[in-house]
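Our preliminary data section would be incomplete without showing what the modeling component actually yields. Below, a chain of 305 amino acids is followed by its predicted structure, encoded as tokens that our downstream tools consume directly.
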Amino acid sequence: MPATSLPRRYLPSLASLRALEALDRLGTATAAAEELSLTQSAVSRQLQILEEQLGAPLITREKRRMHMTDAGARYASEVRTALSLIARAAMQLHVQPGAGGLSLAILPSFGMRWLVPRLAQFAGLHPDVTVNLSTRMEAVQFQAEPFDAAIHYGNGHWDECQSMLLREETLIPVCAPDFLDRLPLDSAEALCTLPLLHIETRPEAWRRWLASHNAPPPSLAGAQFDQFSTITQAAIHGLGIALLPDFIAEQELRAGRLVTAFGGPTRSIGAYYLVWPNSNAQNPTLALFRDWISTQAEGEDWLPR
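Predicted structure:
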């Protein structure tokens, strides 16, 4: 049935739909109001209008809290998909009307060190395609965000998605050159008594590295960091020893800003993947990008899963 023939009650306002989607995703009216830059009463009013227009209960209200009904949660999931499609279409029109566009979410360090240096080649092969990059630390929820694809770190399996292996991750223990001058190391076990720097996304990295070198787990907790860019700077400035991916460590080692602390590299349990939702698998612009990036992927297992 064409959209123009639908009764008005089946075409709610965008404001009401956004309020419902935000409440379902964030869990509270307070969080939804903050994200939408509205008051709680305004969000509540939008939801009430939506229920009245559809003639169906979407929310249960208990004192000052609101919860989704089963029907409301199902409807919100469909709304999320529709809003994502609208946002994606609008983004592509805004960036370069009439040309191909690809919206890609990337991990900050991997995107900067591995992907961006290679993109000039893709641009030369496909000058009519604009690749738009946004950084994300967490796995993208494609139903809620207008991305065609993303680069994720993990095991290669994400719900309702396909993936292509780009690169395995190998970690190297590094520190500032003068750090070893002050505290020379002669064994992996000696690292356990020194400040070890930790990255939040790899909480077991040091434990696995030490175990692979027949050393006990670290005895000191050490500082934690949320990004490789900051933990790298911490190591460069002598705050401790960091386990860095080889594609980051190699550049700093060549420049002499870091040195290998002790021992050798170890393989991480995860790897870097290009990931896209099943619903976008036939996107012709994404297909061009997948074909190109497969030529940059390391190893033999680059075929989509």
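Confidence is low (pLDDT under 50) at residues 300-305. The first strand starts at residue 59 and ends at 62. Preliminary results of this kind motivate Aim 1 of the renewal.
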